[in-house]
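We were asked to recover a plausible sequence for a given structure. The inputs and outputs are reproduced exactly as logged, with field labels preserved.

PROBLEM: sequence recovery
POSITIONS: 374
GIVEN STRUCTURE:
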């Protein structure tokens, strides 16, 4: 991979990361804006700072994207594969952003990456790592344990935890409802709104950190994969000394994520939120269910817990799916018809279509590139 192609991959990856901000970082601040605890500008600033903290907190998800899904022994993941995967994800993200649908940038990227590698290998299904340990597939790397299972389990966990956290809070207020003095006042609506308005600052910060730990790392993984490939191919041997920061040595099939990549990805994602996140915020925070500060606190706490747990184990889950499911759970805990299920139906269709459509886009781009090259 030449320096020019590497630059192109990094630029396209950052464009994807910026567009990811339209979707996924918007999800992480949707509830705190919808409950009027923070203004959109304040929420974006909070998201930027907490995303940066989360992005610097680990690299497990980035390493899954970079080395846990594609078999390097079957196909060389070069600039063509990476650019087609990114462009396929970008096209789908822009379509769903325009419709105001909170689709998964994570699944769009993963679908594009796997099928682009499949197409580049000459349609060899072995290019995709399905399960690193066939007998104990839930332990190892691969699409099944790292993507498919968490894709189903994480929103289910968000929904159940949203109901549980909201139910626990309501039970506590019911218990204190007939008490005297301060405890009685604690159960009144103005006090509850004021209390959880402050508490939601903490839950929104936790949501931002969890988002940085998971979503920002996906673009890091793509950029680090490109840098490692260029380093291994000795394309950087004649670079001037001031460009040596681009080198990412590979040791025993693994490599580290440079700090400058982490910081750059976190900042670009925050910029994307400021640039276009309001469409998604309106869908999650206004159209799907009416939220109060206590609801926002419950949804954010539930989402952050699920995403942080997944990030520690290197699972690239969808912030969109988890946050949306948590909001549904919080709404359903009040009463089933508190959730506008027609909006949910549109969202679910976008979830179902994300992996296959972004994969088809990436496959078509690889084939088109091959045709032009021939």
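RECOVERED SEQUENCE:
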């Amino acid at each position: 991979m030449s320096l020019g192609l590497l630059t192109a991959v990094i630029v396209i990856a950052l464009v994807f990361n910026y567009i990811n901000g339209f979707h996924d970082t918007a999800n992480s601040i949707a509830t705190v804006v919808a409950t009027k605890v923070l203004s959109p500008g304040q929420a974006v600033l909070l998201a930027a700072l907490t995303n940066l903290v989360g992005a610097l907190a680990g690299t497990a998800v980035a390493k899954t994207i970079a080395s846990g899904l594609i078999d390097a022994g079957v196909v060389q993941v070069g600039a063509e594969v990476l650019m087609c995967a990114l462009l396929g994800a970008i096209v789908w993200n822009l379509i769903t952003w325009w419709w105001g649908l909170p689709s998964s940038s994570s699944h769009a990227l993963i679908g594009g990456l796997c099928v682009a590698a499949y197409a580049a290998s000459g349609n060899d299904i072995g290019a995709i790592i399905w399960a690193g340990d066939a007998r104990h597939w839930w332990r190892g790397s691969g699409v099944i344990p790292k993507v498919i299972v968490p894709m189903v389990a994480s929103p289910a966990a968000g929904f159940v935890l949203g109901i549980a956290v909201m139910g626990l809070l309501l039970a506590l207020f019911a218990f204190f409802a007939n008490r005297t003095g301060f405890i009685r006042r604690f159960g009144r609506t103005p006090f509850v709104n004021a209390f959880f308005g402050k508490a939601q600052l903490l839950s929104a910060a936790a949501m931002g950190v969890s988002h940085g730990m998971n979503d920002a790392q996906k673009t890091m993984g793509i950029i680090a994969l490109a840098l490692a490939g260029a380093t291994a191919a000795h394309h950087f041997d004649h670079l001037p000394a001031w460009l040596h920061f681009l080198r990412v040595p590979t040791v025993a099939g693994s490599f580290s994520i440079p700090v400058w990549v982490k910081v750059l990805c976190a900042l670009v994602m925050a910029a994307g939120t400021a640039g276009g996140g309001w469409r998604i915020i309106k869908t999650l925070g206004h159209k799907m269910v009416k939220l109060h500060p206590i609801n926002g606190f419950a949804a954010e706490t539930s989402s952050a817990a699920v995403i942080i747990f997944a990030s520690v184990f290197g699972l690239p889950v969808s912030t969109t799916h988890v946050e949306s499911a948590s909001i549904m759970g919080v709404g359903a805990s009040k009463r089933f018809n508190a959730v506008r299920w027609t909006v949910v139906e549109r969202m679910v269709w976008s979830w179902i279509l994300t992996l296959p459509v972004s994969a088809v886009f990436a496959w078509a781009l690889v084939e088109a590139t091959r045709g032009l090259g021939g």
